[in-house]
Each structure stands twice: as C-alpha cells, then as structure tokens.
Amino acid sequence: MTSENNPQVMIETSAGNIKIELFKDKSPISVRNFLSYVNEGFYDGLVFHRVIKNFMIQGGGMDASMQEKKTRFAIKNEAANGLTNKRGTLAMARTGVIDSATSQFFINVQDNNFLDYRGKTPDLFGYAVFGQVLEGMEIVDAIREVKTGSKGGHGDVPLEPVTILSAKIAG
User: Fold this and answer.
1) pLDDT at 58 over 80
2) Distances in Å between the alpha carbon of 122 and those of 94, 117, 126, 132?
C-alpha cells in the first residue's frame, strides 16, 4: 500500500510525533480535504477530544475547552474504496449522515472491521479510510491510555488535553 507518491504529514502532538501516509489514489476527496486543512494550519492547537482505549482516538475539530472550530463544507464519503479500518489507519469521522465528514479524523487503535463499508444505507456505509500511521504508533498507543471523563457535554474526553501542536506536510 505504501507508495513514495503518497503525501505524508507529520502530526506533532503534546504526546509526541505521528507521521502518516495519505492514500490519495484510493481516497482522493478525503486526502485533498485533509491536506487543505493541514495547509491552512487548521489543526494547530486542536486536541484529541475523544479517546476510547480499545477503539480509536479522534481529533481535528475541537479545542481544549471543547469548542468546535468552524469547518468548510462536508465531503463525499469514500468508505467504499476497498480499504479497511484496521489498526493504525486514519479515517474520516462523521455524523449519522453518510456524507457529513469535514475536518475530524480518527486513528484506529485496533482492527475495527464493523466500521468498514458494507452497504449503501447510513448504518452500513462505514467510515472512509484515507491514510495510515507510518511512524509513531507508540504515541497513538500512549494517547489511547490517557484517563478520560466528561467535559462540555462530551464523553471520553482526555482529562489532560492531548494537543495537536502542528500538522505539516512531511518530506
């Protein structure tokens, strides 16, 4: 799956660095969307606001006070691209509406096959995988171990914020 033509992004967090590769051939819309947020510095200062130890870590939408940052329009869901939500992959977060992803993403900390595309209805459509962790999976594993609680009406929020210091094109 790895290709030198795929863009790479370094996500510098308060817990350490995570280098990711983006699958522009399989998920062109998601990758273009993610890179546009990276290029404008959108993720800088946001937090991983939802951490579930045996599931995933999610970020890219809220600051430490759980205020949602204004995003651009939602994108088409590319979950039917043949990629699976396995450990170490990145996928677009969304609401119950199929084509509702904007800036939020999550990193699977275990194989989450139930998130894969299984049909055209909202409950079966799944979540679009658009990248994978190349380096720093130990950082992802450290983040998944943080203590969580409720904050600002949200559950599974790290009690000590895990901040995205910057996200930049690598290489």
Assistant:
1) yes
2) 11, 10, 8, 24
